[in-house]
Amino acid sequence: MYEGAIQDLIDELGRLPGVGPKSAQRIAFHILSAEQADVTRLATALRRVKEQVRFCRICFNVAEADECRICRDARRTDEVLCVVEEPKDVVAIERTGEFRGRYHVLGGAINPLEGVGPDNLRIRELMTRLSGGAVKELILATDPNTEGEATATYLALLVKPMGIAVTRLASGLPVGGDLEYADEITLGRAFEGRRALDV
Amino acid sequence: MSRAYPRKLYRDDALVLRCQKLGEADRIVTLFTRRHGRVRAVGKGVRRTTSRFGARLEPFGHIDVQIAEGRSLHVVSQVEGISLYGRRIGSDYARYTAASAIVETAERLTPEEQEPALRLYLLTLGAVRALGDDDDRSPPLILDSYLLRAMALSGWAPALTECAVCGQVPESLLDGVGPQQTAFSVPAGGVVCVNCRPPGAAAPSTATMSLLTALAAGDWKTAGASDGPARRQASGLVAALLQWHLERGLRSLPLVDRR
């Protein structure tokens, strides 16, 4: 146990996800020995993230204004809406450069074991957006796990009566992998989702 | 000189109850095993798309697993799928919510890790299999039947045919239905006769009592023929009984899709 400020810092760092007591101590002593300018920059970044970052009022992605960069972009189409669980999923899809529509961030997936039901997610807000009539296709890009599949099923059932096309991201083999190493579920899904070759 | 911790490996078949994220790409998986009871183990790197067995550690999967014992948490070293019900269950919201309540109950009824509970394991596996196969039984009925039978295995079988207090058959349950309506008291542990009826006891219909008896006995013909009001009343009583015995409600039970 240390005294005063250094122990306070170790305690605070130790509350962060994935940071154990040893790591917290290592980071605290790194900060102690770092240049004053580096530490000030870190402190400013921490303060700014709480003061300036909020959720976009339209899609609930993280933003520094009322609306996020993607919702403000007039070049993107309003006809395709991609539903994701978390803001980090938006970043992952944006990295592909394949999608030019809008997003809706649910804030998680339906997980009864954790007490997360449809009312705890931004599903009501999604339905309000869809009722505007501009969206022609809804892409369900929730995680390809049991919770994500159940959430996608729930949303598809809700949206079906609205006459909007509902699609789900394909599951299958990772690029660059060997077929023999694929597990039977992934390989099975890749077979289900096979497509004709345009040659 | 440090010595490596001697890791004991064991193999068992198991039902995946729950997964929780751990660190960058790992998961803590709660397994209900046939011979070792409830076990929590780390699946290393299973959230990565390149993981060789991540898909087999999804909830509701019946798996053949090899586990290395660790100091605090065990580590999953190999997994083979026996029957992976997660996909079928995840693609049907009512099945998903019912299966979630079943696995949460199994977890709550096995408070000690590594305490074998073979009968509860087989019951839980059977209920998840019924939801994961293309079984036409109603998911909420499968859930309520599971809850009644799981409570019975834990020593909390509700009295459904005789008074929970004095043991006599209440007049209302005799052939021809007596003048009094059946009374059901959760604190007393089931049906109560007119003499033992405590204040605040519920008054379920005859159809509800028939349904509860059928669900406890696995009489699916009678259970399947029940109507909506009886199902709603029966599920309310089962939930109240479970909460009474567990002392804390299940998180997943209010989210069960009973439409």
From TrEMBL, chain A:
SMART domains, sorted: TOPRIM (SM00493)
Gene Ontology biological process terms, A to Z: DNA recombination; DNA repair
Annotated GO MF terms: DNA binding; zinc ion binding
Zn-finger region bounds: C4-type: 56-71
UniProt-listed Pfam families: RecR_C, RecR_HhH, RecR_ZnF, Toprim_4
Family annotation (InterPro entries): DNA_Rcmb_RecR, Rcmb_RecR, Rcmb_RecR_Znf, TOPRIM_dom, TOPRIM_RecR
Record keywords, A-Z: DNA damage, DNA recombination, DNA repair, Metal-binding, Zinc, Zinc-finger
Cited SUPFAM superfamilies: Recombination protein RecR (SSF111304)
Domain (Toprim) ranges: 79-174
Entry's family note: Belongs to the RecR family.
PANTHER family, per database record: RECOMBINATION PROTEIN RECR
Function according to Swiss-Prot or TrEMBL: May play a role in DNA repair. It seems to be involved in an RecBC-independent recombinational process of DNA repair. It may act with RecF and RecO.
Classification via HAMAP family: RecR
Protein name (Swiss-Prot/TrEMBL): Recombination protein RecR
Gene encoding the protein: recR
Automatic annotation (TrEMBL), chain B:
GO cellular component: bacterial nucleoid
InterPro entries in alphabetical order: ARFGAP/RecO, DNA_rep/recomb_RecO_N, NA-bd_OB-fold, RecO, RecO_C
GO process annotations (BP): DNA recombination; double-strand break repair
Superkingdom of origin organism: Bacteria
Transmembrane domains' residue ranges: none
Keyword annotations of the record: DNA damage, DNA recombination, DNA repair
Keyword DNA damage among record annotations: yes
Pfam families named among the record's database cross-references: RecO_C (PF02565), RecO_N (PF11967)
Ranges for domain DNA replication/recombination mediator RecO N-terminal: 9-84
Its job: Involved in DNA repair and RecF pathway recombination.
Family named by the database record: Belongs to the RecO family.
Protein known as: DNA repair protein RecO
Organism: Actinocatenispora rupis
Annotated gene: recO
